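User: Predict the structure for this protein chain, please.
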Amino acid sequence: MKKKNESSEQLNIQLFLLCMLAALLCRRLGKISSLRIICGMLRTMIYVGVYIGWGISIYKRVIQKSVRNVLIFIAELIIFWFVVRTTKYFFTMDNQIARYLVQLLHTDVVHSCSSIAGSILSRKVGRISVA
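Assistant: Here is the predicted structure, written as structure tokens:
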């Protein structure tokens, strides 16, 4: 059983490193004007996939429900921010819409930080009080 967990962990590490190398390669190839949009979208999909994997890993490994929910909420926000960022840089041609997306991003940041802080301060994590 221990060998299977170690080999699975090694495979996860190798997969993560492969994804990061692919994202780095997309970044370098994105400097070429004809491949900018394709490589940018591919890089965004790689990052979103890594964050989805991180969220699944959190769901499987974290036992305490309140901590798990906060960390999964953070993973969801990161994915949301990547989608808004990708929409702003790759699909928006109008400056007014780009401004609205930036305001949406800032509003979401303020709301999420306040809700995370409120949820942490209103609960006790284990036996240790955070507040």
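Confidence is low (pLDDT under 50) at residues 124-131.
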